[in-house]
Design a protein that fits this description.
- There is one protein chain.
- With about 35 residues, the chain is mainly alpha-helical.
- The protein has one domain (about 1-35).
- About 85% of the residues lie in helices and about 0% in strands.
- The chain contains 2 helices and no strands.
- The N and C termini lie close together (about 10 Å).
């Protein structure tokens, strides 16, 4: 699960360069991690 989290962080970091879309993606990802 740690590898999946790191991969998610990496993807979120990549998306941060695109702006607002990253915020929604990161929030949804964090919520998914908390449920897992």
């Amino acid at each position: 699960m740690v590898a999946l989290f790191l991969l998610g962080c990496f993807i979120a970091y990549r998306f941060l360069m695109h702006g607002e879309l990253a915020s929604k993606l990161m929030v949804s990802m964090l919520q998914g991690v908390q449920r897992a």
